[in-house]
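Lecture notes, continued. The same structure-token format from the folding unit now serves as the input rather than the output. Read the line below as a description of shape only.
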């Protein structure tokens, strides 16, 4: 069925599977979607199970109502939208035994669940960033010309993020009245992506600890690293982005994104990135740098 995620981990035997390998085989089958291969490859390598071989066909599959296969088209003409694309992966790994087989299967299922949550909420996650890019200026306190210049640059930064420069993994909103003296209050109905999945699993979704000092000041945006390692797209700690929206009185709404800058973003010249370009200009101005010099 379309929502099924089929996973099996086994040691092939001729009697059961028709062939023998002195390796453990991991096989998955699910509707094709972004991040599957790289996320599973990363999972396996972090468990000291570097794939010895991987076959990853993506096929056009038509199924009967009961899920059995009606037809397979290796290359659907014009990516026919009436035919679902299914990702089928076959990994051959260093051999495992006993409980390790079931443990790996459970870990793969959990990783695929997280990928599905991110993919399912992808449009909504990007929509939150686009909304900030358009409306942030409506939720600011009265400030100087420099303050409004910064807000404008942050809006351009969010336009840059949604231009394939950031993989949005999670989102949450918090209400802050304590200005860093206590953690902000989570607004559970705002959770998206992995945050939504954590809530459904009964897990606690907290405000990023490293961003607490930022709440004390008046800066509109926080950029930093999260405490958790990324599980989707690539290795590394999550890139956290928080934005302060002034509501009324002493109350702010804090919008927090978790994700990863894409390979496209990390290779981009800093002078082309909104907000960072302005920070670079400020540094050069403070240092009285001469155009064309080494400073």
């Amino acid at each position: 069925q379309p929502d099924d995620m089929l996973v099996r981990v086994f040691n092939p035997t001729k009697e059961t599977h028709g062939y023998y390998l002195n390796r453990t085989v991991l096989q998955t089958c699910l509707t094709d979607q972004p991040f599957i291969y790289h996320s599973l490859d990363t999972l396996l390598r972090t468990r000291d199970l570097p794939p010895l071989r991987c076959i990853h066909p993506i096929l056009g599959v038509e199924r009967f109502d009961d899920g059995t296969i009606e037809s397979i088209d290796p290359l659907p003409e014009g990516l026919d939208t009436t035919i679902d694309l299914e990702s089928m992966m076959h990994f051959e790994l260093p051999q495992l035994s006993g409980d390790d087989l079931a443990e790996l299967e459970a870990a793969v299922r959990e990783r695929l669940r997280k990928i599905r949550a991110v993919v399912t909420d992808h449009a909504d996650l990007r929509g939150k960033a686009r909304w900030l890019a358009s409306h942030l200026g409506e939720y600011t306190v009265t400030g100087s010309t420099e303050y409004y210049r910064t807000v404008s640059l942050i809006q351009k930064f969010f336009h840059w993020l949604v231009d394939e420069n950031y993989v949005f993994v999670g989102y949450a909103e918090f209400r802050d009245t304590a200005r860093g003296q206590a953690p902000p209050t989570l607004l559970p109905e705002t959770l998206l992506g992995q945050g939504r999945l954590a809530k459904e699993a009964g897990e606690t979704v907290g405000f990023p600890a490293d961003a607490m000092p930022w709440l004390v000041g008046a800066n509109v945006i926080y950029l930093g690293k999260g405490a958790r390692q990324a599980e989707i797209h690539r290795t590394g700690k999550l890139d956290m982005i928080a934005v302060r929206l002034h509501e009324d009185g002493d109350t702010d709404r804090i919008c927090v994104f978790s994700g990863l800058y894409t390979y496209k973003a990390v290779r981009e010249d800093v002078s082309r990135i909104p907000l960072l370009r302005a920070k670079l200009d400020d540094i050069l101005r403070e240092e009285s740098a001469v155009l064309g010099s080494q400073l």
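Point for the exam: The chain has nine helices and eleven strands.
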